[in-house]
Structure formats: C-alpha cells, structure tokens
Amino acid sequence: MSASLTIRSSPSRLRSLGNGAAGLTSMRTRRGFGTTGPRWTTWGFIGLGRMGYPMASNLRTKIPKGDTLLIHDRDAEATARFVEEASSETVADGKGAEIQVLPTPREVAEASSTIITVLPGPSHVMHVFHSILAGALPPTKHRSERLFIDCSTIDPSTSREVANAVHSTNQGRFVDAPMSGGVVGARASTLTFMVGASSRSGQLVERVRPILQLMGSRILHLGEQGMGLSGKLANNYLLAISNIATAEAMNLGLKWGLDPTKLGELINSSSGQCWSSSVNNPVKGVSPDAPAESDYKGGFGVELMKKDLKLAMNAADAVGAKVELGQKAVDVYQAVEAAEAGKDFSVVYKWLGDSR
To answer: In the annotation, is 322 catalytic?
Structure first.
C-alpha cells in the first residue's frame, strides 16, 4: 500500500512532475466573448501516455470548439507532438478545442472544471494529487463543483485514499474510472469505462457518464469508490493469462503447420475466442490493427501488463482469494520484459519462439 496522502506540498517530489512541459507555448484560437454568449468550459487532462494521448485527442475533437483543453505531461516531446497534431487537424477540418500546455498538474487543476488523469501507477497518482491538493484550489469558472476523473489503473486502496483527500478537504468530487479496450479502443473511442463512485454523491455518475462517452462507447457503474478498479483488475488478471494462452495456442498451431489466418479464423469463431485472439492477435496477418502488424510497437506495454497483474494479485491476497496461475504469468511477463521491453504485451508470442 502506498504511503499516506497528506494535504501539504512536497517540493522535492513535485518538481519531477512539473518540468516536462516548461517553456512550451500554447496553441490559442482567438475569439470574441459577448456578455450574453455561451459559457465556455475549461477541461484538464494529465498524462499523455499510450492510452492518455489518443483519449485526450478524442476529447479535444468532441468538446465544443469554444472550450479549452489544458494538458500536462512530464514528457515535453509528448505535449509538443500533441499541440502540433492538434494544430494541423484544426487547420484541416476546423474542429477541436483550444489547447494550452501548463507546466504543473496544480496549474491544470486550478484552471479546470473537469480534470482527467491517466497515469502509469499508484505512485504517479499520489505525486500528482499531492501537487493538486497542496492548498485550497480556487473556485471553478462557473462555480460548479470541480470533478476529478482518474482513469489510471492502480490499487483500489490508493484510489480510495486519494478520493478521501479530495472529498475531506472539499476540493471537489473524485471518481475512479479505469478503462478497457487497449490503444486500439482508445484511438477509436470504443473504450469501456468501469466507474467507482459514491452513491451518496447525488447525480455524480450521471455527470461523469457523458464525459466518458466522449472517449468510449460503454460506461459501467460497478459500485462505490474503488469498485471500478476492482472490476478492472479482475478483467486484467484474466487478460494477462488469456494473452499468454493465445500466444501459446497460435505458436502450437503454426508448429503443426497450420496457416495462421485460418487458425485465427477458427479460434475466433469457436469456443477459444477472446480479445487477445480476435482484436490483439499476436501473429501478423490475423488482426489488421494489432501491434503485431508493426513489430509489436505501441499497444499496451508488457511492463504495464506485469504491473496490472501484480496489482490484481496483491488485491486478491488482501481478501484471501486463491489465484493459481498468477505467479506463473508474472514470471512469464518478467522474462518477456527483459527481452522485449517497451513493446506490446502480445510480444509474448515472439518470446516463445525466441526462447527455444
């Protein structure tokens, strides 16, 4: 479990989050504002990784053109690329909200009504919210209650700790909303979001739902705070194992001399079908948009799959749930990461062939 989240600044820890985007200029579309005109909204998005980047891109194109999207990531190249691509798309089709890059998570939160975070792990979420909650935030532009939507995959206990810090200091409302669907789903806006939100917060879920629908196609409210993450970890435990099984089955069939596309068609029309076989098949030529088509570049990193699997096993241990295959799967991903770091987790298939 992560260290306790206290509401005070920690300069040495926060500096590592705030330096990435320093010096970048904002992309601003000038426009006039009448005194009786529409009430433009300011959105915040923190975390432009493999999942966050396409999610933020879809959000930008779907919110009203008069709105503003504030972004932050400690990777200056990611924010610069996002601004460049957004600028090109705006010139081409005239769509999309104004973009501004801010140097710290705190500054994003100060200026935004809704803040979406997509971060790699528990420590990153803790660091970001230490920064955001280091002192009282100013009122939002329209005096609405500030909304934090954390789409990171972390352990439920850390998420509940952060939620309690937000709620106990009256800084806004916080929900956990991890997603499933991978990079392919993030690009296509077909993600499934699993929401954990207090039933004592009135219409909170209904407030969150249309926001998530800008980036996904299905929103499931799984229960109270942290339950979204519990559902996500159960799903990713299954995904971690089914990915290995798919790689082994495809490898086995090809060793027997079966054609990979015919084997893929068979599996995907039979009882062995799963997401790893149909959407993210590890063999080139079976799933058109899978990372296998580009030497396993992009996609869901093997290191992230290992992280999620460990989070699921720790959460299982906390409630005494027996998980027989988990440790073996961790061993496999540990070995694959050592050989193929940074690649999509379906690279397990390549590792099976290379390791013999």
So the answer is: no
What gap in Å lies between CA 24 and CA 157, rounded to an integer? 36
Question: CA of 176: how far to CAs of 98, 204, 319, in Å?
Answer: 26, 12, 20
Distance, first Cα to last Cα, the chain: 38
pTM above 0.70, yes or no: yes
Vertex 217 angle, CA 183 and 166, to 5°: 80
Here the tokens at position 243 are 């990915």
Catalytic, out of 95, 232, 310, 350: 232
Q: How far is CA 267 from CA 71, 180, 285, 296, 319, in A?
A: 42, 22, 14, 21, 35
Residue 221 has pLDDT above 90, yes or no: yes
Is 99 in contact with 26 (CB distance < 8 Å)?
Answer: yes
Q: Cα torsion at 161, 114, 211, 169 (round to 10°)?
A: 30
**Dihedral (C-alpha) 154, 157, 159, 161: value to the nearest 10 degrees?**
-150
pLDDT tens digits, residue range 242-283? Answer: 999 999 999 999 999 999 999 999 999 999 999 999 999 999
Average pLDDT, the chain: 88
